[in-house]
Design a protein that fits this description.
Largest sheet: 8 strands, mixed
Mean pLDDT: 91
Number of helices: 7
CATH class of the largest domain: Alpha Beta
CATH superfamily of the largest domain: DNA ligase/mRNA capping enzyme
Strand content: 25-35%
CATH topology of the largest domain: D-amino Acid Aminotransferase, Chain A, domain 1
Number of strands: 22
Structural class: alpha+beta
Oligomer: single chain
Number of domains: 2
Helix content: 10-25%
Amino acid sequence: MAKVKLYEPFEPALAHPTKNLDDVVRRSGVSDKTEVATEVKIDGFRCLSHYSANPGIEMYSRRLNQLSAEAYPEITSGIEKLGLDSVILDGELVGVDPETGKLAPFSETMARKRKTFNSKGLPLKYLVFDAVMIDGKEFVDKPYSERREVLEDVKWNNTVELIDVKRARTPEEIEESYQQALIDGFEGLMVKKIDAPYGIGGKRRDWVKYKPTVDVDCVMMGWYLGNGCREEWSSSGEEGVGAFLFGIRNEQTGKYETLVKSGNGLNKDWAISLLDRAKELEIDEMPRSYVKPNDKDIIPDYWISPEIVIELRGQQFTRSENHSSGYSLRFGKLKREREDKNLKSVSTVSEIEGLCT
């Protein structure tokens, strides 16, 4: 029985994050006898594209939302030019600076995502790293090495490209590729088992995301009134926001547990924008799906319903008696809103446990 079908969205394979080489080695199983594949980590937005000559191209985000193919004519044209009968590709859409040819920052890529393409808009590339169907043949259960071999036979173009891959058999070779990725301006490295199938719908040990900092996708649980200049960080100019409370999901209970209180990384405009949305979600009492922090001083001034997902970046995760998750993010800083992720994508307590030092 087929596991995937054209034009029926499915949750893409995900990677376990880490910033520790020993953890990469342990999870990937790299050794003299076990080769792994390494790819640079692209900071774009995930896209699974489905194509056949009739009815054409449909594109889906990792949240399974359908993207408007008409908004990305250069991508749809690039996929059509591949000359394939039917295909489901997995990759990242990322903006490209038209003057330098370098990949654009995530914020610029997302700004393009929200707008309909025009001749002066930021051009995009579709950087493909996997396929689950080519010419009608399903590859979900095939090993990464076989999927890659088929992809390398495709005639790619300047808009739809195949990400370069290196092979590694030692921790030193992984580290060399990782350091080079950072030098080249990428976020880090993806390390993949070459004998693993495509892991639909969740994080597996088959893919590891190796980055120098730790990132976590959190649900916004509440907000705190600001002090000083932040008293004015609101649309009305009073009762502004100072910080937000963020949480992660407990896989065992299905509830959200607190991880960090932070206002770092906010500028005034972004803070006001987030506060306006938070106020629309305000509720009188803490939701039953929340577990309040152990430290009463961390309880927010206002609770909000779980809807907004924010990516935070920090130095490391540490154990904490103050937060209900039992962990805290050290030097947590708001990085960006993840409009491409839903509540199912919020990081879990077990994931943080594996990253805690």
